[in-house]
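Contributing new records

If you add data, match the layout below exactly. Sequence lines come first and carry their own label; structure lines follow with theirs. Keep one chain per record. Anything else will be rejected by the validation script.
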Amino acid sequence: MNKAMPLAYEEYGEANAPVLIILHGFFASSRNWRQVARKLAVNLHIYLLDMRNHGDSVHDAIMDYPSMAADIELFLDTQKIAKANILGHSMGGKAAMWLALSHPERINKLIVADIAPVSYRHSFADLIQALQELPLEELSNRKQADSLLTTAIPEASFRQFLLQNLVLKEGKYAWRIDLDIFARTADNIIAFPDTQGIEAYLDKALFLAGETSNYIDQDSVNKLFPNAEIKMIAGAGHWLHAQQPEAFCDAVDEFLSD
């Protein structure tokens, strides 16, 4: 039995509107989805969750998809929500898929952003090591940290994204996330739980894929989500909600209002 943990969250929109719960990816937090939440909150009651070990949520040594799905269930129970529309990106998308496969009765409509129910082959090891080796005690500003990470993480926008986890506490820089936990559990994030013997999710689902991304694997999606629609967002990669927010929100609105 997975020990469910209460999650920090932000809330947008009218309380009587249909509920949409948004789940972020690895190294992200609710704050990365505020722009999208404000757009979607015109028609929806949005909850942006901080997944375990991310944002303002509690840290725990266990980080895998069954545990994250249990956290989402606890959140639904706490908010007295019988079933909800759920949108998950990357890691959050895998958590949403696992909840849909293990407890389909808690899902109204499922939206998965640029991820598939498969185990990928890439590794976070070098990235996490680069963050662990950042000399926090020597930092006097965030720009210094950005400069020191340039060689290990050449893409400026990705460095800025990661550095949102660097916070100033009593005049000293510290990581909001526990990099040791991330290092120990990163393989769980890359993977997907064993689906042998599990029943497919038969309700409608929407998988949004970035045009220049290769994370969506159509065969694995069709096998476990046979009634899913796969829709491509033009001019976007893996961060499709940030790169093409209008097109992304239009696709979500259209699917939820259908």
